Batch of 2 targets.
Target 1
Amino acid sequence: MSIRVGKTDRASSFPVAAKDALRNDQLRRNVRNATDIIRAKRALRVDEMPDWEQLRQAASDIKMHTLAHLDHYLEQFERNCEQAGGKVHWARDADEANTIAVALIKQYSGDQPAEVIKVKTMTSDEIQMNVALEHAGIRAYETDLADMIVQMSNDEPSHIVVPALHRNRFEVREIFREHMSLVDLGDQPADLADAARNYLREKFLRIKIGISGANFAIAETGSVCVVESEGNGRMCVTMPDVLISLIGIEKVIPTFQDLEVFLQLLPRSATGERMNPYNSFWTGVEPGDGPKAFHVILLDNGRTALLKDERERETLDCIRCGACLNACPVYRETGGHAYGSIYSGPIGAILSPQLQSLEHSRSLPYASTLCGACYEVCPVKINIPEILIHLRGKIVREDQATLRGSLSAECLAMRAMSTIFFSHRRYEAAQRLARLGQKIFERRGQLTNLPGLAGAWTEFRDLRPIPKQSFRDWWKTRAEATASSEEQS
Amino acid sequence: MRIALFVACYNDTLFPETGIAVTRVLERLGHTVEFPVEQTCCGQMHHNTGYQTEAVPLVRRFVSIFRDAEIVCVPSASCVAMIREHYELIAQQEHDPDFAREVRNLLPRIFEFSELLVERLGVDDVGATFPHSVTYHPSCHSLRMLHVGDGPYRLLRRVRKLELVGLPNQEQCCGFGGTFAIKNADVSVAMLSEKNKEVLETGAEVITALDNSCLMQIYGGLHRQGSSVRAMHLAEILSSSEVDG
């Protein structure tokens, strides 16, 4: 079983991909503008909540409890969903989930051309469902405005909540003009929304199969919940004859009452709204109301492996609000594509390397200054910096187990420094040695061109040379002076 | 009070003036400063970069040197964060109850420099004079892990002749992040450019913080672009007197 998150086979390491992103001024301006706006809205809607910290704690408690008893709640969800007329399928990985989806779509399409409309679902991007559908001759239409932009421009999502955050409206106009054959399209938000509405309405009315993800799956009732801003999701889950919902197994929560907590936290954290404009809930099938057939695909795709370690398990608490992306000073500079995964930003930096085997994303846990802004805004209190450090430890230990890794410049330097720091005599000798060694790199009182790893510092930044006297030298000199003056007196 | 100084390895080597300033401020307030010369490093760099195995001996060493101290003063918020956030966990993972107990007993006696002054000693006027305009960067560790709050501002406001200038978007990281500054140098510098643009717009002569690591980053960028803004640890400002100018 091979787990992949999005199109990772093409992904470069973070520092390499980030370099490309940093050269794209338009992208950086778009990302900064968009994240600044969402951050400000979020702050406004969080600050007005007197019990925000209690809500965060409650959410974390509910999630930790659910994950500790995940087997129980998943089976309860399955029972209740099927009792209400739904059908639950279990998928170990992306391929299994896609195979199930393709078979269902073909079955329900019969002789008709196979077409589906989709609600925004990151999980379907995770398993590259659109690629699998295309291979099977099935036409998939993204109906979330941003996902539609990404799909039309053959792009990748750059944000969990706002997948086309890296595009501004002038770029969107060009994409729409080309794909909808609209020569005179304006660039005002209303023009673009009109164009999208006309384009999508025809699809909503014609296409008989819908695909959704889920924000929450409720074990107690077997219900599924999707929250969104546009109403296009509501169309997808109510208008087709057949609805297929792809749900990561961590999305299950025990009771309907638990939504009280999550539906306060999620919209405020994600888009800075008190409540999502559209909150859709459905339970199985209801004759004469909504889809006639309802299928759930419960997806593992590497999630179970995270359950055994308490630190790693916390990653599955995520409710995909994207607040950590908007708060992250690294994401702010690079945007989402540099993370080489559909899950970007701080949550992507811990989720991608854990879902797929580390080799595809070893650089991600280092794509952070550990500044803690992500943890501060996380509505379910995932301690992302701690998980990053934990994953760094795993990577280092894996590296050290290989000959090449154990002989890398970094590993040798770290081991040498650990030995040096273990004795203050060795440490003092190293201070003297460094002071001597730096002389040939000094230019006008600064170090500007250091060799090796330190060169990455001086390529962009100056460094004041190591002073002649260390603090401990000063301390000793002063102690000696005091002692001798006391002797004299 | 007898105060043991853990100066931090990078301060000892690269920024001795910070340790000297801490000593002067505490002595001026009538305390006795001790400097156990066996001290080296708290293990932060190793731990945070993933070399956790290599950090353990350094953590044990730190604890054995400072376990009997009345108070430990650390002029580096990130080192204090390392000690507070990770030492107990490391001790647990070592399955050594004696070590874990020593860590637990030691933690309440560890103070970041500004915390020690404001929270433990209840001082906000240390009798300093510093006739310059200053802006303060709340480093991420001091802000989000130690939650030092307004302590540093209270200390700065009581410095005579000092003009305190607000730093816009002050809570944004400077891009240092330890080995991040090397491993992701391009992104680190992009973050730094944003920070330094704000620093320069304040027009302040001096940028200060509780961490020389962040200041090294900020100064490194400013100096490369030819700016004359100085970077000084808070302790250095607090140790200044009329005589120093």
Target 2
Amino acid sequence: MAKILIVDDSAFARSSISMIVENGGHEVVGRAQDGDQALLMYKSLHPELVTLDYLMDGKDGEEVLREIIQHDPEAKVIMLTGSGDHAIEETALQTGAKVFLEKPNMYMNLLKVIDQVMGI
Amino acid sequence: MNAQQISLTKKQINSFDRFLVDGTGNTLNALTGMFGLNIDSSNSTIEIASAVHSENLNRLGSGALYVVSSALLGDMQGSIVLLMRKCDFECLGDVMKPILNLLFLSSTDTDLATLDNQKPDWMRNSSLNHSSDPVFHEQMMDTLSEMGNVIIGLYTKAIYKNYKLNTHHSLPKTLEDPDQQAFSQILSSSEVSEPLHMIIENEFIVMAKPIKLWCVISPTLESFQNMLNIIDSDPGYGSC
């Protein structure tokens, strides 16, 4: 079981991800709706894993990822995106995301990917 | 495919038909995964037009619309707009209500209970409410926004798959458009000069209810020409 922080500007996405991971036996320790909230929650809640939306108002996912990795180089972050742009994927993985998951696939594969990242 | 307004070769028409199949198939799979519902596609068409007007959007009617729009960035420049009629949006709402009730029942964060001044424009200016249930209406608008983000991403993916144009989209804007003025403004105020329009009309059957969704992709003339050149130089598309 992993303690997970969900970062997404969509309430629908936050609730969906929450339901998926809780049904998979994981614990949702926080749900952030923007980058600033995500960083505060990461520092105070110490999640073992973060699901991070790429496309958000204000700080985008890449910026948030960079700040999380700066604070904790060992952070386990799964970047989620609605975009299929390979350049964005490469940058996210180079910045420190463990996995880059397209949102349409997320609904089917998120639990498998979490297990993979957590080494379960 | 209807390409009466633009002169296209058979090979180009075949290519756009294949793009339509990819986009529609991906959308169908994504919506099924997102909502956990039984969804089928009953009808899909694509039309390439030099202008968007009542003739090529006649089934859209003149009533209120729900609009999700983004800029196209990267190898293909332009804009992309998803459109849903009010009747389809409300029909989707009827189907989604039990799912959203279940999803938002367990909400523990601030989710949709944000302060008014933190809400996006579509929440503050909301005038088209689902059966005077503003909370559910907000949930539906948020769902539409996420659905739009995912579907727009899938069309950019189909652009890459078919034309190897690495394209992504800007943060989508979601709005209610009671008199279709916002949609007209999006098309006319686009920074794209002389755009062409790929008008995709999809009808999905969601839990036995037909729901229509339009997608208008408007690449710049240069991006569109680039796409045609790629089709013409690709022997994989064949000529029949």
